[in-house]
Hints:
35% of the residues lie in helices and 33% in strands. The chain is α/β, with parallel strands linked by helices. It has 2 domains: 2-131, Response regulator (Rossmann fold, 3-Layer(aba) Sandwich); 135-232, CATH 2.40.50.1020. Strand 14 and strand 15 (216-219) form a beta hairpin. The chain has a 5-stranded parallel sheet with strand order 2-1-3-4-5, with helices on both faces. A 5-stranded antiparallel sheet has the order 10-9-8-12-11. The chain has a 3-stranded antiparallel sheet with strand order 13-14-15, with no helix packed on it. It has 7 helices and 15 strands. Residues 136-234 form the HTH LytTR-type domain. Residues 3-114 form the Response regulatory domain.
Amino acid sequence: MINCLIVDDEPVARTILRNYCSHLPEVHIVAECGHALEAKVILADQPIDLLFLDIHMPVLTGISFVNTLKNPPQVIFTTAYEEYAVTAFDLAACDYLLKPFSLERFIVAVDKAKEKLQGSQKRVAETNQLARQTNFFIKAAGKIYKVAYADCLYIEAQGNYSKVVTVGSTFLPKMTFSALLALLPDDLFIRVHRSFLINKSMINHIDGNRVYVQQKEIPIAETYRDSFLSKLGL
């Protein structure tokens, strides 16, 4: 469900938007109002995903209004003036509907907003997942150990085992290298060789085809070099 707020000083324009929204069951109109200051109060009080926002309004224009918002929702500008389009998109507007616009064009704009909202929700979920999961478990020498991502230096393949080297310990769990590879987040751990996975945050420096994780010298295989450097932003 997309919670939206209609902000337009023309009652007829609000009626058209309300009618268009009625064709889209996923769009829920939380409120509508005739000027930006009233919208600001509503935004402070209710969760709004999407603003249908006129530009020419009394007291404060739609553009100025968005500039006042610290964390604006998705915005679709609805206006009779095309000259503000560039400014609107500079404000990361979702779309810019030039009045009068058709229901078809309105649906296209809402679909864009929906995609952006879904992308944003996915990123939040991934961030939350990462925040929740900060360690992994391994079984070695008859015990189960919790290893914090932040403490793990590197992992080395050892046949049917894997050597997990942390800041304070070394473990030899009976886990294949590929099984550990699947367990660890690829934005934190990077494979640099068929037998080595390193913690990106522990890299000391890179010298030619060698990467130094603290004092440990680890080879960078030609096969993995480009993806390794790419993940470092190089």
